[in-house]
């Protein structure tokens, strides 16, 4: 163990130099000066080219950042760490998370140097700008510092490995100012190892720092995260990657086309290391002295030409099957993977949809020029529903290609399907053609507007039957109570949307006396969930009168149901009710009535000519549900709206139907509803 006095400049010369067999973690060492040759009368012959003294280092290691100034795309992280060092507020544990190749481990190594740097004169302290020339910095750069330990948590993930760390942290640093433990992929530690580390991580010795890096932050226990300062390293933008790769290519003496750089930056997907690996491969692809072309990078990445992708999209959107298959043949000849072709088409579909939604994006220079020019023109001819349908087909087709034994055939089938669908109208267009798409007269209520501002009166209003709760002929709504789930019964008459606010000192008045059994059942909703469920499914109403209810219960109903219901009515209405049980059959339960009414609505809807036309236009379509805002929470109309009639029957005994989408035509031919895929004006037509 050495004391702080051992870190003086006198002791600096006693430290061993970096090993000569290779460079350190952060780059190549400075070349040794050449020895002066003795003067001779005749110049010696030029030496033969020698083998390189050092093995080749890939660009991702050769240009690894050595300080915070070299980190790109992580401005928030750098700013926070610089301020922490300036204010002497450096935490004892850091959690660095992000996708692969954005600089997590590199940042940890820079922090380790910043913590142990002593400056060129040997008197410096922790700094955000390590000098790189002091013995501590040189030892860390050469990966031989005894107090900076980098462990791979994937292979050191047991309790025994953590126990070794716990035993080692008790001792002071042997050379540097701090002991720094860098655990890469820390999420690979076992649960027992995490638990064994908790106490040491919460209260480590003052000379110990922990630096964790992970790509799976969700797998790290919250107990570990709460003991660390977390930094999320974001993906590096494509513009920053292009500039960074161009600078490195210039340092390497390589000539590369801007379009090729853009392809590499796009393929890197925000990862600097991935992009440098691709750049390294691209530089080695052409012969010496030649430039790296976009065509070569496209072949290297197995990408389809952007122009070819645009040709495929244009041919598919106009339903030109021969052109689609010819385009796939050209892509196959160039070696493009069928799955990549569909992925490029899906990406282009997303770009076209953005152009359609936000036309200003066509001037974004980060988008390739071909997509901005040809894509912008193509987006003008397509609608949002058509692009959305193409997106769904391509998204599903990518999965089909991945699972198919013949990827090319699967991709061609997806494109044939896409071209076939391009000739078919969207559901909104089908409905507009069938209904005539007549414009509503000025001053008329919006389509679908019904009682209380809800959806339209549905099929009932469309066929001339007054909506439930409204007077015949469209007059004022019929008064009375309407059962609603979630509380007491409410008045069915037109009323302001906002209920009057009572003064704080005024108590709420008791609920009005229910006039129907369904309103009694609605009182239990929200207050007594179990009682409400039994009233809906296990009770047959025999007789109902104000203040008296006679019921027949099923065997699964509780024995004290009558007592529970009596107490609820007294609590909510303030009046005493008599609830008795009977052996009479009574009417069906509310659940049974709801099922019958739903079946009747579906039957009526299925016989309407417009619905039949839609079903014929879309083979295999089904009517799944018929909704009506005039119905109560149980799917039944208020019984007082049509007195003396069973639910779902008109005055002539024929079944009627209400549906809030109102797709039945009225007497004047107005369909009374908006199409299902209706869009804001200006977006549904070229």
Q: Tally the helices: what do you get?
A: 24
CATH superfamily of the domain at 59-232: P-loop containing nucleotide triphosphate hydrolases
What level of helicity do the residues show? 25-40%
CATH class of the domain at 59-232: Alpha Beta
Q: Could you describe the largest sheet, including whether it forms a barrel?
A: 5 strands, parallel
Supply the helix-strand structural class: alpha/beta
CATH architectural grouping of the domain at 59-232: 3-Layer(aba) Sandwich
Termini separation comes to: 78 Å
**Sheet with the most strands: spatial strand order:** 2-3-4-1-5
CATH fold-level label of the domain at 59-232: Rossmann fold
Shape: flat
Unreliable residue stretches: 1-16, 18-23, 31-41, 437-506, 642-686
Radius of gyration, Cα only, in angstroms? 38 Å
Keywords: ATP-binding, DNA replication, DNA-directed DNA polymerase, Metal-binding, Nucleotide-binding, Nucleotidyltransferase, Transferase, Zinc
GO cellular component, one term: DNA polymerase III complex
Family: Belongs to the DnaX/STICHEL family.
Biased composition (Low complexity): 1-10, 33-42, 642-653
Could you characterize what this model shows?
By secondary structure, the chain is an alpha/beta fold. Among the domains are: 59-232, Rossmann fold; 238-300, Helicase, Ruva Protein, domain 3, CATH 1.10.8; 302-426, Zinc Finger, Delta Prime, domain 3, CATH 1.20.272; 517-587, DnaA, N-terminal domain (GMP Synthetase, Chain A, domain 3). Helix content is 39%, strand content 7%. The chain has 24 helices and 10 strands. It has helices spanning 59-62, 75-86, 104-116, 135-141, 159-168, 191-202, 222-225, 238-251, 258-268, 272-283, 294-301, 306-317, 321-333, 338-357, 369-381, 384-403, 407-422, 427-435, 459-462, 517-524, 529-537, 561-573, 590-606, 609-617; strands at 93-97, 148-152, 179-184, 208-214, 229-232, 481-482, 490-491, 539-545, 548-553, 578-581. A 5-stranded parallel sheet has the order 2-3-4-1-5, covered by helices on one side. A 3-stranded mixed sheet has the order 8-9-10. A two-stranded antiparallel ribbon has the order 6-7. Strand 2, helix 5 and strand 3 form a beta-alpha-beta unit. Helix 3 (104-116) packs antiparallel against helix 4 and helix 8 (238-251) crosses helix 9 (258-268). The chain starts with 58 loop residues before the first helix and ends in a 69-residue tail after the last helix. Residues 1-10, 33-42, 642-653 have a biased composition (Low complexity). It catalyses: DNA(n) + a 2'-deoxyribonucleoside 5'-triphosphate = DNA(n+1) + diphosphate. It comes from Muricoccus nepalensis. Belongs to the DnaX/STICHEL family. One of its GO terms (molecular function) is DNA-directed DNA polymerase activity.
């Amino acid at each position: 163990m050495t004391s702080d006095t051992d870190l003086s400049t006198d002791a600096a010369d006693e430290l061993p130099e970096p090993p000569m067999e290779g460079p350190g973690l952060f780059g190549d060492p400075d070349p040794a000066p050449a020895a002066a040759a003795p003067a001779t009368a005749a110049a010696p012959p030029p030496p033969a080219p020698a083998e390189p003294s050092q093995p080749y280092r890939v660009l991702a290691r050769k240009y690894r950042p050595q300080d915070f100034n070299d980190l790109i795309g992580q401005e928030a992280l750098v700013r926070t760490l610089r301020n922490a060092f300036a204010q002497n507020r450096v935490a004892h544990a850091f959690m660095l998370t992000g996708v692969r190749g954005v600089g997590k481990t590199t940042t940890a190594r820079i922090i380790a140097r910043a913590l142990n740097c002593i400056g060129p004169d040997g008197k410096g302290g922790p700094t955000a700008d390590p000098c790189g020339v002091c013995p501590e910095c040189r030892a860390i750069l050469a990966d031989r510092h005894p107090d900076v330990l980098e462990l791979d948590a994937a292979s050191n993930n047991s309790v025994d490995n953590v126990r070794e760390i716990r035993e080692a942290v008790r001792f002071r640093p042997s050379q540097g100012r701090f002991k720094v433990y860098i655990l890469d992929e820390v999420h690979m530690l076992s649960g027992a190892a995490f638990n064994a580390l908790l106490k040491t991580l919460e209260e480590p010795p003052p000379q110990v720092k922990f630096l964790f890096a992970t790509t799976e932050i969700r797998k790290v226990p919250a107990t570990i995260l709460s003991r660390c300062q977390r930094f999320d390293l974001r993906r590096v933008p494509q513009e920053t990657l292009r500039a960074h790769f161009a600078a490195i290519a210039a340092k390497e003496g390589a000539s590369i086309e801007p379009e090729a750089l853009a392809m590499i930056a796009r393929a890197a997907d925000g990862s600097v290391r991935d992009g440098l690996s691709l750049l390294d491969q691209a530089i080695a692809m052409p012969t010496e002295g030649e430039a790296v072309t976009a065509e070569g990078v496209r072949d290297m990445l197995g990408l389809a030409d952007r122009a070819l992708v645009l040709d495929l999209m244009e041919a598919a959107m106009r339903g030109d099957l021969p052109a689609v298959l010819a385009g796939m043949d050209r892509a196959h000849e160039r070696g493009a993977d069928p799955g990549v072709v569909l992925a490029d088409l899906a990406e282009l579909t997303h770009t076209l949809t953005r152009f359609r939604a936000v036309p200003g994006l066509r001037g974004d220079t980060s988008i390739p020029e071909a997509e901005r020019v040809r894509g912008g023109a193509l987006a003008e001819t397509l609608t949002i529903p058509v692009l959305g349908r193409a997106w769904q087909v391509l998204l599903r087709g990518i999965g089909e290609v991945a699972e198919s034994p013949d990827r090319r055939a699967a991709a061609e089938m997806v494109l044939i399907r896409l071209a076939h669908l391009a000739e078919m109208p969207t559901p909104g267009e089908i409905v507009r053609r069938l209904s005539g798409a007549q414009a509503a007269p000025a001053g008329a209520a919006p389509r679908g507007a019904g009682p209380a501002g809800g959806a339209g009166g549905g099929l009932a209003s469309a066929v001339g039957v007054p909506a439930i709760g409204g007077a015949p002929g469209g007059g004022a709504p019929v008064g009375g109570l309407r059962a609603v789930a979630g509380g007491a019964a409410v008045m069915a008459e037109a009323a302001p949307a906002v209920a009057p606010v009572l003064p704080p000192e005024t108590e709420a008045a008791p609920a009005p006396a229910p006039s129907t059994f369904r309103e009694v059942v609605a009182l239990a909703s929200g207050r007594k969930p179990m009682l409400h469920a039994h009233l809906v499914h296990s009770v047959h109403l025999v007789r109902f009168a104000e203040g008296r209810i006679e019921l027949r219960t099923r065997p699964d109903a509780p024995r004290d149901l009558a007592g529970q219901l009596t107490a609820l009515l007294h609590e909510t209405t303030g009046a005493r009710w008599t609830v008795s049980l009977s052996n009479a059959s009574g009417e069906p339960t509310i659940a049974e009535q709801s099922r019958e009414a739903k079946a009747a609505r579906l039957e009526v809807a299925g016989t309407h000519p417009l619905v039949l036309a839609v079903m014929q236009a879309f083979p295999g379509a089904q009517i799944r549900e018929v909704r009506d805002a005039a119905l109560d929470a149980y799917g039944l109309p208020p019984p007082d709206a049509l007195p003396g009639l069973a639910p779902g029957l008109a005055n002539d005994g024929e079944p009627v139907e209400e549906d809030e989408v109102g797709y039945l035509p009225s007497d004047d031919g107005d369909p009374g509803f908006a199409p299902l895929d209706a869009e804001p004006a200006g977006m549904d037509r070229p």
